[in-house]
Amino acid sequence: MAEKERFLSKQDVYQGKIFSVEKRQVELADGSQAQRDIVHHALAVGILPLVDADHAILVRQWRAAADDFVLEIPAGKVDSRDHGNEEEAARQAAIRELNEEIRFHPGSLTKFATVYEAIGFTDARIALYLATDMTALANAEQLPQDHGESLDLLTVSYDEMTALYQRGELNDQKTLTAYFYWTNWRLTNGKQSFFHPVTAKS
Amino acid sequence: MAEKERFLSKQDVYQGKIFSVEKRQVELADGSQAQRDIVHHALAVGILPLVDADHAILVRQWRAAADDFVLEIPAGKVDSRDHGNEEEAARQAAIRELNEEIRFHPGSLTKFATVYEAIGFTDARIALYLATDMTALANAEQLPQDHGESLDLLTVSYDEMTALYQRGELNDQKTLTAYFYWTNWRLTNGKQSFFHPVTAKS
């Protein structure tokens, strides 16, 4: 039977700009002690934005952690601009990130999962969405981009994304998860069923 | 055009037991500077182990980062017991983790992706595998479990995993990705095609 660990003490060992680190001492079921290091991070959102049944918009940006450019679905952190309970704030963050990064507003936004990103060492979670029925935003509706954010936008077909996956070039987990979700949907429902007859801005 | 960031300097701000934290100063394309905090973590492996066409073995354990029990595919870090190049070491780690955690040896082990787990703040990557044609390990072949590792093993049917997903209880990203991969495979190839006619220990 899996046992719960008992919290003994903690020490805040680093306070960074986007995460903090806690060093926690716990007691195991056998009475011995263990150290657990935990990275605390805000809830994130990632969105698979489909412009039509066969095309998604992805972003390509420099990532310090990879020392390379990485191709990803649009994503970002829930922050103080996003209000309400967690569900509402995450939804607002998803809409805001689509505006900031790709300049579209989703007529339909469906959450398909909320998951821990790397449960072995961090409480970072990401809420994942499918965005469809998108309308392009006029200049006046566009929010300012984050400072230091330098993005390429790529419209990628489903077949191109499959080729990227097969070559091992889909190397970001949220993006892989979204690609698999898209694949499931196409196999189950046919590619047209994502789209509603009327494209209304909600 | 997305711009590369230029490395200026770094400071190692925390050295923990399973990760370290680097505070990096970079120069952006416009000449301004920015701070990037990066969690450095070893390569991890996660394995979807199928005992037959319709059943996987999952593990349930206490996770300090979630302050809760979490249901996951077997997983672990590549460590000094795993040799060779990255590909070989990851494969050995996957076989070792299946031994330590669920006491099975995979006759067939297929990598289906290697991905960054949370690219916004960490270089942590995970290699994901499908394990089939499994044989139970006798006592003498079983490796010792990690100290402090307390696991429940659950044999879960595909339909049960679908119900868990639909209720939002599949809250670990590697496990969700593996579930989606399993779904794709079943939809594309039929559920029997995972399995080979002869179950030989490789």
From TrEMBL, chains A, B:
Coiled-coil regions listed in the entry: none
Descriptive protein name: ADP-ribose pyrophosphatase
InterPro entries: NUDIX_hydrolase-like_dom_sf, NUDIX_hydrolase_dom
Domain spans labelled Nudix hydrolase: 40-178
Cofactors named for this entry: Mg(2+)
SUPFAM superfamilies: Nudix
UniProt-recorded Gene Ontology molecular function terms: hydrolase activity
GO terms for biological process, alphabetical: nucleoside phosphate metabolic process; ribose phosphate metabolic process
Pfam family, one: NUDIX
Organism of origin: Fructobacillus tropaeoli
